Write the structure tokens for this entry.
Amino acid sequence: MLFTTQSMQDIIITLNGKAKACGAGEYFSFEILDPDLGEGYAGEILEIEGKSYIYRGYKSWTDLAELLMCKMMTPEKSTYPLVKLHFKKLVTQSSFHIESSSSKEEKYGVDSHFSQIHKMEEPAFLYYYTQALENAKLSQRRSILNLGINTGDEFNVIKNSLDTDTYEKMKLVGVDHSKSAITYAKSSFPEENVTFYAHDINDLERLNLGRFDLLISIGTLQSPSINFKPFFMSLVQNYLEKDAAIILGFPNSRWVGGEMIYGAKAPNYAMSEMSLLFNDVIFCKKYLQQKKYRVTLTGKQYIFLTATKII
């Protein structure tokens, strides 16, 4: 199968048919113009040795693979000026989103499918999380509360972003429902300034935590067991100092077959549908602006809301 001057619309129709015909883990292949031979924007016509080709960069093809629920494998050189691409169909049943667990607390525990995910090794997550920490003026913060800390990866980025003296003067508190995840986090952070609780965040009052000047919660507050809007307002009113900052991460992706796939998935929809995501994000943005916060929204696979107090 060779694509030369076919439109992307025609290519998507053809490859979508191939993808649907493939079983999980199976491949299909096709040839294209070598992206290294062109520059500029997708869609430009190149003439090479008397033949016409439509130029598209590798990003166009990796994006297409993701949309077709495939993984693009290493391209192979073919007859000049072509390369051969291989798309491997993802194992869509390999996802923590559909995994059952003996207890809801351990759906995110150290022995779960979720534990195989390392968000900090995904540039599209780490870059924007680090940017959010910078925007929240991390080095000026004295106390940090993280709800849904799991095994502590988000604290590890904070630790690595600061000099030892600044880090050790901070108080860091992490709360998560999973006992096994918290046990792992405690073993990773033996420092006296870091405390972890295996606890249901719906019942934070029992912990008597006090107030903090940075709140972080990534992909936790939208859990089905949490009444999101009143819970978030309670956090702002009862757990934050007057000059506090906030970082919230809203998942706009799914973890499927070893890949972080763009697009929030709502119940009863076959495609990505982001109404619930936008509803929660805009609610938080408007509420915090009323409380005199400056709010920014960044990210892609995760939408990061960063809020800092206007002084």
